[in-house]
């Protein structure tokens, strides 16, 4: 018998609440910065991806204020890129990203999710095979599931398993294999072994897709990301995906690579063709942000100092950390209830640190996901460590 929406989903929602997996949206009352008003309370925010502290940078704000006085620039783009929404600032930003990364072209998308859907749907055809790291971002996983290729996953960062997968594949003439991986993994903070992946890709003549959303801006010379950080250069058959809502502090995403890749996406990518272009004002803001990213060595050095300071303090407390050199520093707690308790206890002390639970992470790996920013101070990092020390002591005494 047919069900109403209420009949179908009420028990599912209740089951999620009982499993401590129910999600709620926190409400911000202030600009994106370390000291914020969240849910009406003053908090030091350690759950933002604003790694370099550019989201509220005065240079970006002043550029927008000046632009709003310009009759040549509107807030809305008005249409898709292929209709009439492709503004000069979109075009210049794409050129500047390509020059920054040393590739032939770049293409803007409204979100990283759309970019990953588009790339995999366009590149992969029936008979192809797509191999993805098991801990890839959800957008990479969903893009793989909704493309025409056979999708197989390999254990996280396990190059022996990836090699075995590649050796088992016997593609017919004209069929292709694509390896897809995060550059910096969003929940663990570790970096993909790109040198080994690139070697295997070249040996087996496969294409490579790297979503470096959490690497661009934060790692490498001039913030060029994980490839540069590891001393590597992407090949002609490598596709780079990056987001602008993290280290850049704005919003949107891009795909970067060869001329043929970008033209193919423009012609065939439904998530690009059938959506309104991002605001021209956002493109202008991102052009300013890119200048800051390229000149951002002081911010990157300060961020690395915060990462080292936090890791040394957390390890001294014997908290379980991942081997992460990035701004993402997860503290493994195991079950969802404990992760929620620790997150709530931190809120009581004025620190906003999100509890990450299944299905975002594997069962039994619930955690606090601490993200550090160059905009934090040493005093804020030390205060967070002191709060964690107190919560840890209370937990050991059975106070939750």
Can you give keywords for this protein?
16% strand; alpha/beta; 400 residues; single chain; 13 strands; 42% helix; 3-stranded mixed beta sheet
Helices, strands, pairings?
Blueprint: H1 5-18, E1 35-38, E2 41-45, H2 58-67, H3 81-85, H4 88-101, E3 105-109, H5 112-123, E4 129-133, H6 138-145, E5 150-154, H7 159-168, E6 177-182, H8 194-203, E7 207-211, H9 226-229, E8 238-243, E9 253-257, H10 259-268, H11 270-273, H12 280-294, H13 297-316, E10 328-334, H14 336-348, E11 351-352, E12 354-356, E13 366-371, H15 378-396
Parallel strand pairs: 2-11, 4-5, 4-6, 6-7, 7-8
Antiparallel strand pairs: 1-2, 3-9, 8-9, 10-13, 12-13
Helix pairs in contact: 2-12, 4-12, 5-6, 13-15
Shape: globular
Instruction: Give me the count of strands.
Output: 13
Proportion of residues in extended strands: 15-25%
Q: In terms of per-residue confidence, which ranges show pLDDT below 50 for 5 or more consecutive residues?
A: none
Number of helices in the DSSP assignment: 15
Q: Record the strand order, biggest sheet.
A: 3-9-8-7-6-4-5
What is the oligomeric state here?
single chain
Order of helices and strands: HEEHHHEHEHEHEHEHEEHHHHEHEEEH
Distance between the termini: 45 Å
Radius of gyration: 22 Å
* Percentage of residues assigned to helices: 40-55%
Largest sheet: 7 strands, mixed
**What structural category arises from helix and sheet content?**
alpha/beta
């Amino acid at each position: 018998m047919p069900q109403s929406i209420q009949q179908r989903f009420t028990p599912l929602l209740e089951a999620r609440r009982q499993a401590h997996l129910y999600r709620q949206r926190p409400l911000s009352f202030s600009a994106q910065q370390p000291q914020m008003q969240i849910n009406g309370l003053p908090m030091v925010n350690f759950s933002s991806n604003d790694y370099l502290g550019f989201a509220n940078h005065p240079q970006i704000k002043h550029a927008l204020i000046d632009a709003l006085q310009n009759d040549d620039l509107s807030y809305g783009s008005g249409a898709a890129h292929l209709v009439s929404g492709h503004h000069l600032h979109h075009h210049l930003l794409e050129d500047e990203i390509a020059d920054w990364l040393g590739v032939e072209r770049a293409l803007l998308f409204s979100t990283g999710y759309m970019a990953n859907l588009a790339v995999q749907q366009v590149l992969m055809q029936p008979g192809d095979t797509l191999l993805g790291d098991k801990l890839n971002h959800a957008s990479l996983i969903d893009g793989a599931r909704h493309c025409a290729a056979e999708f197989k996953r390999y254990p996280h960062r396990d190059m022996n398993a990836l090699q075995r997968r590649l050796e088992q594949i016997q593609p017919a003439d004209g069929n292709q294999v694509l390896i897809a991986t995060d550059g910096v993994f969003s929940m663990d903070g570790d970096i993909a072994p790109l040198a080994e992946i690139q070697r295997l890709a070249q040996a087996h003549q496969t294409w490579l897709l790297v979503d470096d959303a959490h690497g661009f801006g934060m790692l490498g010379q001039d913030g060029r990301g994980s490839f540069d950080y590891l001393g590597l250069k992407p090949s002609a058959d490598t596709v780079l995906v990056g987001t602008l809502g993290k280290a850049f502090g704005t919003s949107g995403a891009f795909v970067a690579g060869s001329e043929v890749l970008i033209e193919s996406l423009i012609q065939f990518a439904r998530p690009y063709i059938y959506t309104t272009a991002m605001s021209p004002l956002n493109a202008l803001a991102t052009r300013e942000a890119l200048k800051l990213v390229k000149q951002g060595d002081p911010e990157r050095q300060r961020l690395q100092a915060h990462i080292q300071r936090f890791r040394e303090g957390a390890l001294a407390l014997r908290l379980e950390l991942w081997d992460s050199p990035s701004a993402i520093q997860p503290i493994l707690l195991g079950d969802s209830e404990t992760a929620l308790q620790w997150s709530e206890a931190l809120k009581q002390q004025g620190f906003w640190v999100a509890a990450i639970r299944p299905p975002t992470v594997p069962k039994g790996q619930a955690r606090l996901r601490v993200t550090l920013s160059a905009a934090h101070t040493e005093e804020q990092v030390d205060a967070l460590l002191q709060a964690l020390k107190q919560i840890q002591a209370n937990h050991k005494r059975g106070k939750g």
